[in-house]
């Protein structure tokens, strides 16, 4: 079982939610505290986007941690998409793994392990089906992150179609929920592969 599937089962399914994407992130810091050894970290952090099973469906952004020595994942913080004021892609002209999430009461500055993971995260966060009354501002984002026309012409909208398919799968009910979960994980993996390939050719 991969990490995304495990996080989904442990953190989101018990709360009546479905995980759409989870990316491991690290904080961007200007300087390292002198008393911490290089590379020291006793936990892993994942930023996740999930959707509620009940209608009207709602997108949620959740910070999940896995502490050293433990195989379990725990929910630390959660925001509704309405509380997300801005997604800052840092550089609209260069594909980078850094991004900022600006909420009503806090600003998180993150970096992922690759620009492809950042791309998948922002693409899913920008799902049109779940647009809230209060729109989130996407600024300094490369066109591929928000589905710009140039990106869709070049790639045929393949990522967008994958995201839409995941979206439909997540909305299933009853006996089809397990199948939808498996399909969602499979499509997430395909989306990741697509993003990696796209990154190499851009």
UniProtKB/TrEMBL annotation:
<protein>
    <submittedName>
        <fullName>Syntaxin-binding protein 6-like</fullName>
    </submittedName>
</protein>
<dbReference type="Pfam" id="PF15277">
    <property type="entry name" value="Sec3-PIP2_bind"/>
</dbReference>
<feature type="domain" description="Exocyst complex component Sec3 PIP2-binding N-terminal">
    <location>
        <begin position="40"/>
        <end position="130"/>
    </location>
</feature>
<dbReference type="InterPro" id="IPR028258">
    <property type="entry name" value="Sec3-PIP2_bind"/>
</dbReference>
């Amino acid at each position: 079982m991969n990490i995304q599937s495990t996080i989904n089962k442990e953190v989101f399914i018990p709360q009546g939610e479905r995980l759409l994407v989870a990316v491991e992130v690290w904080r961007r810091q200007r300087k390292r505290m002198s008393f911490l050894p290089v590379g020291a970290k006793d936990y892993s952090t994942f930023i996740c986007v999930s959707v509620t099973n009940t209608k009207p469906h709602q997108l949620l952004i959740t910070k999940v941690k896995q502490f050293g020595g433990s195989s379990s994942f725990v929910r630390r913080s959660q925001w509704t998409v309405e509380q997300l004021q801005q997604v800052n892609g840092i550089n609209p002209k260069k594909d980078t793994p850094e991004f900022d999430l600006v909420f009503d009461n806090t600003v998180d500055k993150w970096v992922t392990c690759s620009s492809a993971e950042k791309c998948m995260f922002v693409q899913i966060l920008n799902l049109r089906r779940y647009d809230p009354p209060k729109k989130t501002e996407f600024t300094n984002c490369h066109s591929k992150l928000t589905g710009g026309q140039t990106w869709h012409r070049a790639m045929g909208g393949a990522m967008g179609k994958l995201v839409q398919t995941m979206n439909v799968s997540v909305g299933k009910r009853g006996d089809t929920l397990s199948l939808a979960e498996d399909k969602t994980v499979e499509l997430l993996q395909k989306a990741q592969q697509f993003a990696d390939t796209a990154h190499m050719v851009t």
